[in-house]
Design brief:
With 543 residues, the chain is an alpha+beta fold. It has 13 helices and 20 strands. The chain has three domains: 178 residues, no CATH class; 169 residues, Beta-Lactamase, CATH 3.30.450.20; 173 residues, Reverse transcriptase/Diguanylate cyclase domain (Alpha-Beta Plaits, 2-Layer Sandwich), CATH 3.30.70. This is GGDEF domain-containing protein.
Amino acid sequence: MESRLGEARTKVKPKAIAARCRIGGVPPEAAEGNGEIAHPHKIAFGIPRLIPDLHGLLVDGGSGYWSCDRISGAQMTPTASLDRRFFLRVILPMFGLIALLLAGAIVGVLMLSSKQNHLSIEFQQRAAKNAFQHFAEELANQAAGMAGRDETAAHVVDAFDAGWLASHLTADQDEAFFFILDPDDRTLFSRTGGRVVSTEARGVLPPAFSQLISRWRAGRLADTATQLIAVDGAPILFALAGIHAVDDRDKSADGGHVLAIGRRVDRASLEDLAETFMLPNLSYEPGFGQTTEGPGRLRLMSQNGTMGDSLVWDPILLGDQILKAVGPGLVLVFAGYLVLTAVVLVFARRAVRLISVSEEKALHDPLTGLPNRLLLLDRMKRLLEPKRGDDAAAAVFYLDLDGFKEVNDSAGHAAGDAVLIGVARRLREFCRAEDTVARLGGDEFVMVIPTDDRQLIEARAEAVLAALSSPYQYNGHSLVIGVSIGVALAPEHGLDVAALLHKADAALYAAKQGGKGLVRFYRKNMRSETVSRNPVAPQPAGA
């Protein structure tokens, strides 16, 4: 229950009334009672920075005020509070940054994978389209080559000769249909499955074939037309070419003879295309009016837009392959990150505890658990710093025990220690949330009260005087001491910390000289006992 620079204590024995101190509102545990030594909170301020990067975590980085309130029962341990601060200020930002970088890397890999998949699908769809166009162009060139020869024109247009056609325009193994049509679209010659038959094309082919011929006749004679037509559910690619002599290739096709070839789009043909264009498991899928889309699919639209057939294949997704290659590494990195986090947290907690112990010893009195001289000076500097302006007001009580040497000499040093612990406990009882009480050494104590209310200051001094003069019990014996108090006021007596302490010491000396057991306020004609006493700091000039 010291000043707002933050004192908290943990007690040796668990069954005592605790005093809880907070740093910026965070309540660490403190306790004192039964005369045991109360150990200070493992948080320090103002000592040389043993570890500069951690020092800021072990002190209050806010306004510099420490507050203390009283509770009963067990509270949060100081180490837990310190661990939380260390976690929030160092570990969490550091590993948050690492986690952010790791998440960024994962997101980057996922985005790269998605982009690569998209590019791969686009490339394969272009390849499938080129594959089908290659297949169609090959058949169109075959039809144009047969129909655009003088010999073919002579045996079809000039004098029809079915025998010559059967022997010279032979079928290949993939041919499904071969027709020669006259200008009225009547069938002059037909071959299906490699055999010459006597049948009308319109009798074995769907209406889409007649529609193809009609569109073709609107163009030039030498042009070819291709279209995929489903015949009995099987895909047949048809190519049309006008039969003409070489010199008649620019004539209109509307009144000419037509050569039509239909080739099966079978598994063997698709396997050749799949190998050439790297389209695994390429196959044909009738659409039946469906509009299903997918990464490994190319819809084959007819010239009138009615066909919904598709070429389908197993897509090669480079992005997924990247994930398969990089994914295990990312998993290992993430696992390593978790392990590293756990290891760092364990060692960080140990480091914080070691540092807190060192800071505790450096800033607190080991017997009473009160702040020592160094921490007192730091708190007073923060309280009276110039930037606080009109708020920089305080009363500094300098206390010296009367009769303490006699207790030590008569009852022993153990009794003297018990008295000092009892004095510290009673002084704490007078502390408000914003007050500070410290032990300078020996039987000297300092209490700092942030107020300029003279009435409150006088009442507090008299109450402390009465409380510390009550007997102390030790091993069944009643030990009686007194106390003298010197008081200096800020800003009335200045704002310099060392000067205020010397002036309070001078007032204390006056109280001692006046008969002990008194309270004296500093006046200008007072001088401290700088030779026989142990001042806090060298006497300021003009003090």
